[in-house]
Amino acid sequence: MSMMKKIAITAVLAAGVNLMGTVPAYAQLRVEVSGVGSMQIPVAIAAFGNESMTPQQISSIIKDDLSRSGYFKIIDTGAVMTETTPVNFDEWKQRGAEALVVGSVQTLADGRFDVRYKLLDTIKSSTLSGFAVATPPTNTRITAHKIADDIYEKLTGVRGAFSTRIAYVTKSGSEYRLEVADADGDGVKVALRSNEPIISPAWSADGTKVAYVSFEAKKPVVWVQNLVTGERRVVANYKGSNSAPAWSPDGSRLAIALSRDGLTQIYSVGADGSDLKKLTSSSSIDTEPQFSADGQSIYFLSDRSGGPQIYRMSANGGEAKRVTFNGSYNITPRISPDGNTLAYISRREGKFQLYALDLASGQEQRLSDTSKDESPSFSPNGRYIMYATESGRRGALAVVSIDGKVKQRLTVQAGDIREPTWGPFMK
């Protein structure tokens, strides 16, 4: 929801709050894909040897990941091929494959799986990549995602983001849930649930914590929760509204928006809630701060020019320079990991849509064709943007490639889903 709506939300019924691990996992997200990349790489993926012993077929997960990305044309080998199977490279070239993925699974004495994989270049008749990893059965999907990440990186030159996670808020009846899932919508876990609204989740750079705004105290308060231990703490509970948390890249501080002195302004605060510093002192509403990728700047939303526009200032405050000039209403700035692209929601002709601005050239591109978009979030490799939209009058998540060609829609069977944030690369 927009900055104005977030500030105006009032609390609903008081309720208890439960943490991750005390509630069952919920149904995974349903993913629909449309469109393909401007260039598709043909890849043959064989069934892995003995993969029927794993909870989910590793080769199927790899196929799904690469297909969903829009940048690969999958060629089914129709056969099992392990990393030791002799390969006739000319045959695969004739079938149109530029690369071939093979592998196997073995059971280790301690119950773990020994997963081996190899990526072959059929054009050069050589091995491009490969590795072996011992994984517990519960991590089968993660291992498959990591193999897909390696294939994506070796064939495109860009790091894959299949093994990353997303967080979002689902509303079902009177219950709000902060949920965490794999990037493909599987493996859903509930981090928090409440009968009060939860908004504005934001991942820390190390992927262990999420900051968010909860209304459980009948007002907006900024919390930080450790996703590993479930421990949570208040980092901003001042008079008025406490909103819009955003992490510094080093994880030491949060940029937040507070109305403690009247109009909402930008502050920074230590991740433990200490050392509050005021960064803006304008006669306008300043909110929705976002650190730049290098941590040196903060992008934020302000109506100081008459309507909401996006500005940039030093991370220590000071003079702000306007960044968006097209359209009279631009909100929710998000900066790409390489610092080159600004994503935001723009209202034009009554539609709220996702736009991306190349900061060097000033060229702007509309990326969505829906009309009620909000909360954009870049994938950690910068190739995709996830955002909230509506599908059949219910909240849904969507993903679009930064060139606008590949689109995904993520929905749940019951309830609204909103406020997405894409997590970082995991160590």
Task: Tell me what you see in this structure.
- The chain is mostly beta strands and 427 residues long.
- It has 2 domains: 121 residues, TolB, N-terminal domain (Rossmann fold, 3-Layer(aba) Sandwich), CATH 3.40.50.10070; 259 residues, TolB, C-terminal domain (Neuraminidase, 6 Propeller), CATH 2.120.10.
- Helix content is 10%, strand content 47%.
- The protein contains 4 helices and 31 strands.
- Strands 1-10-9-8-31 form a 5-stranded antiparallel beta sheet, with no helix packed on it. Strands 2-30-29-28-27 form a 5-stranded antiparallel beta sheet, with no helix packed on it.
- A hairpin with a 5-residue loop joins strand 11 and strand 12.
- Helix 2 packs across helix 4.
- The longest helix has 17 residues.
- It is globular, with a radius of gyration of 23 Å.
- 47% of the residues are buried.
- The N terminus is likely disordered.
- Part of the Tol-Pal system, which plays a role in outer membrane invagination during cell division and is important for maintaining outer membrane integrity.
- Pfam families: PD40, TolB_N.
- Belongs to the TolB family.
- Keywords: Cell cycle, Cell division, Periplasm, Signal.
- The Tol-Pal system is composed of five core proteins: the inner membrane proteins TolA, TolQ and TolR, the periplasmic protein TolB and the outer membrane protein Pal. They form a network linking the inner and outer membranes and the peptidoglycan layer.
